């Protein structure tokens, strides 16, 4: 889903190491030039994506599982995709009725393509102007998350470049912006544990491994505990 980051001779932090050994960014097939929305009012609509090396759209199977976890109907929810890339997750959330979806992307080429997709969707017959709920912002993902009001978003999508060192900062900022009953979707090259997430006040509620990708749904620790005890 995301754009590649610039290569670095040294990558530190949880994003780059596992068991003291470097984590190599997984090799993905290049996107075919389009993505297909899999649910909601735009189900089966195909959207063009930019032709950029390393662009890593979240696979259909993972997206389908994710929205089974989050709920097929996202009516009224506020969502932000902090590393939007192709916008697959954000557009999927909008298709399923989200009240607000903010797409944040740093790469100018990808931002232009996101705007083209928005124009494509706006050309459909919709009951309300799409621009009222879908917002595209050019910016750096972690900084954008830090600018959000506390406890203001119900779903936060995090899929930063695998070879960057953005996970700790993104998770800390997302935890602050997350509503008490909200969910963070985290895509990473390794599994995150409750122990690693404890300092951020988060716990793992769902996890799957698809090839070299680990997909997680995280909740705030207090919210998760209450849910389990209900």
Write a concise keyword list for the protein shown above.
single chain, 230 residues, alpha/beta, Rossmann fold, 7-stranded mixed β-sheet, two-stranded antiparallel ribbon, 7 helices, 28% helix, 26% strand, globular, disordered N terminus, disordered C terminus
CATH architecture name: 3-Layer(aba) Sandwich
Name the CATH superfamily classification. Answer: Vaccinia Virus protein VP39
The chain-level structural class is: alpha/beta
With strands numbered from the N-terminus, the spatial order across the biggest sheet is 7-6-5-8-9-11-10
Number of domains: 1
Low-confidence stretches: 1-31, 226-230
SSE topology string? EEEEHEHEHEHEHEHEEH
* Major β-sheet annotation: 7 strands, mixed
Summarize model confidence as the mean pLDDT. 82
Count, helices: 7
CATH fold naming? Rossmann fold
User: Per DSSP, what share of the residues sits in E-state strands of 2 or more residues?
Assistant: 25-35%
């Amino acid at each position: 889903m995301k754009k590649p980051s610039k290569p670095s001779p040294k990558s530190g932090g949880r994003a780059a190491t596992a068991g003291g050994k470097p984590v190599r960014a997984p090799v993905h097939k290049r996107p075919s030039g389009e993505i297909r929305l899999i649910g909601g009012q735009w189900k089966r609509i195909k959207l063009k994506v930019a032709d950029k090396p390393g662009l890593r759209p979240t696979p259909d199977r993972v997206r389908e599982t994710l929205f089974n976890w989050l709920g097929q109907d996202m009516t009224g929810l506020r969502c932000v995709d902090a590393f939007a890339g192709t916008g697959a997750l954000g557009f999927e959330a909008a298709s399923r009725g989200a009240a607000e979806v903010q797409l944040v992307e740093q790469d100018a080429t990808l931002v232009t393509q996101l705007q083209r997709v928005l124009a494509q969707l706006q050309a459909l017959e919709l009951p309300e102007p799409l621009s009222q709920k879908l917002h595209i912002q050019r910016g750096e993902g972690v900084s954008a998350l830090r600018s959000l009001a506390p406890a203001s978003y119900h779903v936060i999508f995090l899929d930063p470049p695998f070879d960057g060192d953005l996970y700790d900062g993104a998770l800390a900022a997302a935890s602050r912006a997350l509503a008490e009953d909200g969910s963070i979707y985290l895509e990473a090259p390794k599994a995150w544990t409750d122990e690693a997430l404890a300092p951020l006040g988060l716990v793992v509620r769902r996890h799957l491994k698809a090839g070299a990708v680990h997909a997680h749904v995280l909740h705030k620790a207090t919210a998760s505990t209450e849910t389990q005890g209900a």
